[in-house]
Amino acid sequence: MSPGDPQTTDFGFEQIRKQDKAGRVRAVFDSVASRYDLMNDLMSAGAHRLWKQFALSLTGLRPGARVLDVAGGTGDIAVGLARQVGRSGLVMLADINAAMLQAGRDRLIDAGLVGNVCCVQADAERLPFADGSFDCVTIAFGLRNVTDKARALASMRRVLKAGGQLLVLEFSKPATPSLRTLYDAYSLRVLPLMGRLVAGDAASYRYLAESIRRHPDQETLLAMLRAAGLEQCRYHNLMGGIVAVHRGYQPG
What we know:
The chain is of the alpha/beta class. It has a domain at about 30-175 and about 220-250: 3-Layer(aba) Sandwich (Rossmann fold), CATH 3.40.50.150. The protein has 9 helices and 9 strands. The strands form 2 sheets. It has a 7-stranded mixed sheet, sandwiched between helices. A hairpin with a 4-residue loop joins strand 8 and strand 9. Helix 1 (about 20-30) crosses helix 8 and helix 7 (about 175-200) runs antiparallel to helix 8 (about 200-215). It is globular, with a radius of gyration of 17 Å. The mean pLDDT is about 90.
C-alpha cells in the first residue's frame, strides 16, 4: 500500500485500507477511554484545558442556542457549551466510539447537566441531523482521526444554520523548526512511554502521536474549510502552532 493509492489512508505512519480505519481508530479509543482525561492532563501538563477554554471563548453562543460537539469524547467541551447556552439551549454530544461517549455522558451527569444535553453515537462523516440544525458545531482533537476529513467538514457545514460557525481545535504544525524538533522528540518518544506506564498501552499513544504528523497543517486545513463551503475562514495558533483553532461560517 502506498500514500498515493486512493483506496488507502493513513493510520499514524501506517498506510491501511480506508474501510479499515474506523475500526482501528475505534479500538484505540476503546483502549484509552478510561484514562483519556488523565493522560491529556499528563501529556499537555494541563495546557489542553486552556486550549479548550480559548476555543469556547470564540463560540459567541447565547442562551437558547443549539450546538453540536462532534467527536466530543469525554464531554469537557460539551460541559462548557452547555453552560453557555443555558437550560433553554441544547447541546448535542456526538461520538462514533461508544466507550468515549459513555465517559462523556457520565461527566455531564456528574456536572448536573441532564436537561439540555443529549448524547448520540454518530459518524462525523455522516451526521444524522437535518440541514441547518445548529448555531455552532465544534470538534476538538477529533478531526485527525476521521477517515475522510473533507467529507466530515462538509457534513458539519451542512448541519449549520445560515451564519453558524464551525470551530476546529486540533494539533497542528509548530511555526519554527526548533520548536518542531523539540515537539517531535517529545511526542514520538515520550508520549508512547507515558502511555505504557500510565495507561498500559504504548501502541495507542504511538498512533495518537503519529496521527498528529499526518494531520494537515494550518494553511492546508484552512483551504479545506473553504473547499467545504465555509466563509470568513481563519485560524489562531496556540503555543507556537503546536495547536490551532480553525473557524469558518455557513453562508447566509
